[in-house]
UniProtKB/TrEMBL annotation:
One of its GO terms (cellular component) is cytosol. It comes from Mediterraneibacter butyricigenes. It catalyses: L-glutamate + ATP = L-glutamyl 5-phosphate + ADP. It is an enzyme of class 2 (transferase). NCBIfam families: proB. CDD domains: AAK_G5K_ProB. Belongs to the glutamate 5-kinase family. Gene3D superfamilies: Acetylglutamate kinase-like. The lineage of its organism: Bacteria, Bacillati, Bacillota, Clostridia, Lachnospirales. This is Glutamate 5-kinase. PANTHER family: GLUTAMATE 5-KINASE, ISOPENTENYL PHOSPHATE KINASE.
Length: 308
């Protein structure tokens, strides 16, 4: 098939999810201020073009962990929740600061599984999003980690790829962008297997595709590609296209919105009719030459250097 993405230019309501690896420096845990500032400018520019944007931002646990000086990933649920409580405020403070430079209002929206599955909560959440968007406020969403636990009635979503897809469904978004620490979906995890091929377009999520998607292989990542495939199912069923792209260069968001062929595009139910998955015929050069290993919080990962 020909991967023509010009139509992405017409997208109006966009949910953009940034993972911890995009928001913070993975090796120190500190907020990547430079990238966050650029991200905010990109978002404001999209608003200026007449788009509606909803941000789903991870990073609360990572930022809290760094602020508290914890050297290791929080071990208990309570530690994780403490980190999230500390980090969420700091994260919002930075977002607010950058958005304020353009007199742009933001809103913190903390959701639980209950907000998604309980019809009454769902109705309220949807109504709040609509009200915020109609007042040109940018919602910044995260899971309410402090009360999201398995044992409690509120339940847990557990990671933000799925949360972002639920939000896309809830607000009737026409595009969901997941900014990850990798440029999209490969036929296997490239951090473990160098002989991988890039998947440009997914029209159909079948068992073989699901097997290609593995979990996270860095200390700061949460769901890896498994949760992104799950997110893709929710978003595409709800009528939104979804793109996974690399948050390393945050300007990639502009390329996606300009219809450039970057990242892996998952076609919505409607757009997938008569289309097939498009997989690159061979391993990209930068993957074949990726030899250097670097430490990311104690994990060995392939350093892609500047070749990306
Ligand atoms: N088939 C695959 N293609 C690409 N990445 C994969 C695949 N399977 C597993 N992964 C892993 O998923 C990771 C991205 O997810 P994750 O660690 O949750 O980070 P983020 O929150 O930034 O998206 C990649 O760094 C990679 O190691
Ligand atoms: N709610 C958590 C996010 C969990 C999560 O999904 O993180 P990530 O895999 O970095 O997107 C936090 O803010 O730290």
């Amino acid at each position: 098939m020909t991967d023509q993405r010009e139509y992405l230019k017409q997208k109006k309501r966009v949910v953009i999810k940034v993972g911890t690896t995009t928001v913070t420096y993975p090796d120190t845990g500190y907020i990547n201020l430079d990238k966050l500032e650029k991200f905010v400018r990109i978002l404001i520019n999209l608003l200026n073009k007449g788009k509606e944007v909803i941000v789903v931002s991870s990073g609360a646990v990572g930022v809290g962990r760094q602020a508290l000086g914890m050297k290791h990933k929080p071990e208990t649920e309570a530690q994780k929740q403490m980190c999230a409580a500390v980090g969420q405020g700091r994260l919002m403070m930075i977002y607010e600061k950058f958005f304020n430079e353009y007199s742009q209002l933001t809103a913190q929206v903390l959701l639980t599984k209950e907000s998604i599955v309980n019809p009454e909560c769902r109705k309220m959440a949807r109504r709040t999003f609509e009200e915020l968007l109609s007042h040109k406020v940018v919602p910044i969403v995260n899971e309410n980690d402090v009360i999201s636990m398995d044992e409690l009635a509120y339940g847990t979503i557990g990671e933000n790829d799925t949360l972002a897809a639920y939000v896309a469904d809830l607000v009737g978004a026409d595009l969901l962008i997941l900014m990850s620490d990798i440029e999209g979906l490969y036929t296997d995890d490239p951090r473990k297997n160098e002989k991988v091929r890039f998947i440009h377009t997914v029209a159909k999520i079948d068992e073989s595709l699901e097997k290609m998607a593995k979990g996270a292989s860095t200390d700061s990542g949460t769901g890896g590609m498994t949760t992104k495939i799950n997110a893709a199912k929710i978003a595409t069923d709800a009528g939104a296209d979804m793109v996974i792209a690399n948050g390393e260069n945050i300007y990639t968001i502009n390329e996606i919105m300009n219809g450039k062929k970057v990242g892996t595009l998952f076609l919505s139910k409607e757009h997938s009719i008569g289309q097939e998955n498009e997989i690159a015929p061979e391993t990209p050069q930068y993957r074949r030459s990726a030899k250097k290993l670097k430490k990311v919080r104690g994990m060995s990962v392939i350093d892609l250097g500047t070749e990306l």
